[in-house]
Amino acid sequence: ADGLGRGLEQIQARTEELLFEPVIRLGVTGLSRAGKTVFITSLVANLLNPGRMPQLRAAADGRLMLAFLQPQPNDAVARFAYEDHIAALTGPQPHWPESTRTISQLRLSLRVRPTGFLTGLTGPRTVHLDIVDYPGEWLLDLPLLAQSYAEWSEKALTQAEAPGRIALARDWLAAARETDGTAALDEVAAQGLARGFTAYLHAARAAGFSGCAPGRFLLPGELEGSPALTFAPLPAPSRRARDGSLYAAFERRFESYKRVVVKPFFRDHFAAIERQIVLVDALGAIHAGPRAVEDLRLAMADILQAFRPGPNSWLSRILGRRIERIAFAATKADHLHHGQHDALSGIMEALVADARARATYKGAQTRSFAIAALRATVEAEVRQGGDLVPCVRGTLAETGREAALFAGRLPDDPASLMVPARQGAERWLDADFAVMGFAPPKLNLRPGEGPPHIRMDRVAEFLIGDRLL
Ligand code: GDP
Questions:
Q1: I need a surface site. Which of 186, 220, 346, 390 has the fewest CB within 10 A?
Q2: H helices of 207-333, where?
Q3: What pLDDT does 128 receive?
Q4: What is the pLDDT of residue 322?
Q5: Residue 43 belongs to a domain with what CATH number?
Q6: What is the SS3 assignment for 453?
Q7: Contact 365, 379 (CB under 8 A)
Q8: Is 412 in contact with 346 (CB distance < 8 Å)?
Q9: For position 371, what pLDDT does the model report?
Q10: Any ligand 1 atom below 6 A from CB of 36
Q11: To the nearest whole percent, how much of the chain has pLDDT over 70?
């Protein structure tokens, strides 16, 4: 009866919401450093002051009358620290804000005047935009739900032996291979293996690899040091591992990781999301080389599985409703002259092509963009010899000096980036990209204007425009 009562309450709340004050639940995700924090900060600032959002129709038509921040409705989730982040970006000494470490949420309420004949009948209405920021690493955990500890171990060990990774994994791999899983659990040895495995994942991430699950090993949030994170893959033992053995302990912890960490995230947060943007530091991966791009493509496929779960999977059973729109955005496009932006969104498109086809099939609208949430550069043509080189100019964070730089060239054909990593493959973005650590620009914003960006208005129109009509 209790469950029924709660169900009715939920239906009632949802009905009120639909009739009076609709809520759009927008998920913002991407791997660490993809640009989530800067994206949300800029989106909110540009909705509060929509002077630079001409492609957001409600703003261009003057129907977006007011936007304001509200206490967010979910007491159990940290609030996105908008005020700190916007102060970092727009203060007298502009600097990049602290990155996403865990899940957080923010409610922005928009007062909009409806279009068309309704205008005469109804006054302005309020639409709440609940923005949920969460690490993309957590989505990489979804495939774990379908794997046993033995299956996962085997995959993880094989992956660690791949070219490019093996050098980073060598010490831990040697220790794992020497470990007798059937021996009695020794907590110190267990912690040593977990630490070694975690260190390898961090090193792989730093080297530009994207597929580095389990996600909480990189971003543990409040779980740092807990037993649910104190395990690592082990080779299958030659005889049965009894209760009390290391192998049995790791097997149990792997299962509790799925139960207490992975499932609650999907059930309590992911399931409610209606609109989603996936941010991707495609430029960073392209610069890191063909292996990193291939790894990113595979990680994207894993991430996107969450958006098109198999019909009988655990996830599809708990998903309340389908995600209606998914934007894929290559971030930091201000590193490139606009002449290369189409190439960048083409690459973004190619990175998710497979998964996208299937998501479209399932009824979600998807689109790829090349964006800069906060434009740190201006374009400049620099004469070099007889040629005009299309550069971008900005302030380098390290030295505080201005520089006009050329990131390098993107391939004309995105497919050429997607070939499986091979020795001696062509390199892209090999000009000045490595030194392009631009600081956010010193801003002198006019009233009504948010911070400068590239295509944030188009992204906003795609993600929420239809709900502001
Ligand atoms: P998160 O880990 O996904 O939250 O990533 P952040 O939003 O913290 O961004 C990581 C870093 O990427 C920032 O510190 C900036 O250096 C850089 N970055 C993010 N967005 C932009 C952008 O629009 N333009 C430029 N030039 N750099 C950006």
A1: 186
A2: 215-218, 246-256, 263-268, 282-288, 290-305, 314-318
A3: 96
A4: 75
A5: 3.40.50
A6: coil
A7: no
A8: no
A9: 98
A10: yes
A11: 90
Ligand 1 geometric centre to CA of 239 (Å)? 49
Judge if the beta carbon of residue 134 lies within 6 A of ligand 1: no
More confident residue, 72 or 395: 395
Pocket of ligand 1 contains residue 210 by CB under 6 Å: no
Q: In terms of domains, do 213 and 300 share one?
A: no
Residue 400 located in a structural domain: no
Are 77 and 154 part of one and the same domain? Answer: no
What total of structural domains would you count in the chain?
2
CA 122 to chain CA centroid, nearest Å: 38
* First-to-last C-alpha distance (Å) of the chain: 40
Assembly ipTM = 0.99
Residue range(s) defining the domain that contains residue 276: 2-134+269-376+443-468
- The pLDDT of residue 362 is 65
The protein residue with its alpha carbon nearest to ligand 1, atom 28, reads 332
Whether 360 and 304 map to the same domain: the answer is yes
Domain boundary among the residues 263, 288, 309 is at 263
178 shares a domain with 92: no
**Which of 208, 232, 263 is the endpoint of a domain?**
263
Ligand 1 contact, 34 CB (< 6 A): yes
Q: Are residue 154 and residue 114 in the same domain, yes or no? A: no
Residue bearing the CA closest to ligand 1, atom 21: 332
pLDDT tens profile 4-16: 666 676 666 656 5
Minimum CA distance residue for ligand 1 atom 27: 332
Q: What is the DSSP string of 172-195?
A: HHHHHHH--TTSBP-HHHHHHHHH
DSSP state of 261: I
Per-residue pLDDT reduced to its tens digit, 332-385: 999 999 999 999 999 999 988 866 666 555 668 889 999 999 999 999 999 988
Claim to verify: residue 204 and residue 283 sit in the same structural domain: no
**Phi and psi of 281, rounded to 5°?**
-85, 70
Judge whether 368 lies within some domain.
Answer: yes
Atom 11 in ligand 1: residue holding the nearest Cα: 33
Could you give the C-alpha distances from 329 to 132, 282, 368, 459, in angstroms and in order? 17, 9, 6, 8
pLDDT > 90: percent of the chain: 63
Identify whether the C-beta of residue 412 lies closer than 8 Å to the C-beta of residue 344.
Answer: no
Q: Does one domain contain both 76 and 21? A: yes
Tell me the average pLDDT across 200-207.
93
- Residue 159 falls inside a structural domain: yes
Residues 204 and 155 in one domain: yes
Atom number of ligand 1 nearest to Cα 32? 2
Q: What is the mean pLDDT of the chain?
A: 89
- Indicate whether 55 pLDDT > 90: yes
Does residue 399 fall inside a structural domain?
A: no
Nearest-atom number in ligand 1 for the CA of 376 is: 26
Of 104-113, 283-292, 360-369, 428-437, the least confident: 360-369
